[in-house]
Amino acid sequence: MLALLIIGSLIGTFLLAFIIVKFVPLKLRGLVSILLLALAGYLTFLIYSGVMEPIKFDIEKKKRYAKVIDKLKLIREAQIKYKDVKNTYASNKDSLIYFIEKDSLAIIEVYNQDTIVDVGGGITEKKSIRKERISKYEPIIDYFEGKDFTNMFQVPDTDKEFKLETSSIEKVTGLFVPVFEASIDKESILKGLARHLVKQELEVIEADQIKGSKVSVGSLNEVSTGGNWPPYYDTGDAKAEKEE
Known about the structure:
The chain is an alpha+beta fold. 45% of the residues lie in helices and 25% in strands. A hairpin with a 2-residue loop joins strand 1 (104-120) and strand 2. Helix 1 (2-23) packs antiparallel against helix 2. It starts with a helix and ends with a helix.
């Protein structure tokens, strides 16, 4: 689209210059020149806007995505703690928030205990056996001090909430393991931005972009607690843009 605009502008400018030289009386050329300057200014504005629109879109989408990903990371952290205690994942936000506020995590202490073992023939020997015991319980809420976990399901700058799903998949024959996914569609995040650029964003497949139509953490198809965003959202680059 931008290339066509530039080519059309060049062709139009050439044709107008030809018409002025050939057909416009000398006394009117001053007025025509002013009109042409105004037209040139307008065309320059259109070209500039065409160049800057995708650049501004890219900056804005990264700011919005960074905020969303921060929330998804918090949900993931809470789900991992939930699984540590319950051996499964929370299926809804209320259960997960209640867990953080009210539950505790058992801290396991590993120690060695000397035991006399009969090895046969009336012979015994001392062996050190590894054992475990609960040393204390730590409130889950201590792990989330200073974190706004009560609002972690609220998608930033929207009236939407993250969708939370849980399931189980067969990791090896006969062994089923729990999985979860928290997600939000990109359209909700990018609401208000240029529609044609949002449509392109829903179809991106590049490795350095968030592929597909949603931003998510976890998976219902594989054992994973990873997010579908590229690494630079974890290194602080996108967060730096968010704070600009």
